[in-house]
Amino acid sequence: AIYHVQDTSLFHIDIKSQKISGLLENIQQILKNVLKISAIIPNNMCISNADFVTKAFLNISITPITISIFAILFVTINKWPQKSDKLKKHKTVKILSIFHNRMFWCNRLIMAMLLMIMFANQKINETLFTLIYCIPIGQTRVLEVQGDIVCWQSWQVAVIIYIAVSVLPQCVVFILGPGLLEKKMISYYHFLLALFLPLPFISYWVIKIIFTKDKHLNKDQKGCKGDKDKQFCNIILDETYKAFSTDKVPYYLCWGGCIELRRLALVIFSLYVPNPITKLLLMISVCGLALMALLHISPYTDQTSQRAAIFSLFAQCITGFINLNFAILNLTDAN
What we know:
Blueprint: H1 2-9, H2 18-35, H3 52-79, H4 92-131, E1 134-137, E2 140-143, H5 154-182, H6 188-196, H7 198-211, H8 226-240, H9 255-272, H10 276-297, H11 303-334
Antiparallel strand pairs: 1-2
Helix pairs in contact: 3-4, 4-5, 4-8, 4-9, 5-6, 5-7, 5-8, 5-9, 6-7, 9-10, 10-11
């Protein structure tokens, strides 16, 4: 549901005609009332005397900082010595209770990190791509959202490098990583680290897939070694892999990564295609191709999830066509 709301918001277009704009708002309000959907999307932080770039960096820094705190807590709780060997036998029950509580918090922290990455990805990517979107003004190029900022400063170069190294390849992590984790070819911390620095890990995974034969996959037990590691791996697989079937695709291809790839394409088209009609046609094509692949492959193991995904993509296509009609009407009205 969160993915659907986030993706549908990208189909929004600016309507100059007040008549058409008012009609579109009325339709959106009717749909919200019928579907009982209320999406709260916070705006930039209210910081006095701060420009768009400062507010944007502060906004997107919240998620990495929070995930870093969760990661520190996870390592601290997971690696903290229990000193169980110094306790007597009559304290066995207490030891097991402490271990259970520790595992409970470690499991919750891993799940929280995964969910934050998955749900916050689109907003962070959208902000990063906005920060490098420049338009020509005379002989110079300026930032599209704030015309007094000249483009290609050092911070923009850093953003471009980060996008190339982390943002663009991250969907490949969701495509390759879960299958490799399920086959015990990588560890759970290997997968989590790859979400933050995908490019080097993806290169290593591709080499491993090419040079590792299927009959040797289960002999490498480095991935999920011990009860704790197996439990952590299962949590990650529950969120990223076990909901999808691999009957029609190789083990190292996960449909969850295809979802992330589609969402990344929607963000890029929504930001970088200035013509609203062309933009909507491209976005509808992306959703249409994803819908056809979904119907052909049937990647979900649960039929309810399969039907929900089909409905979501179909609804996005309908939303795109509705906005496309309004874009055409707006162009006609302007002429």
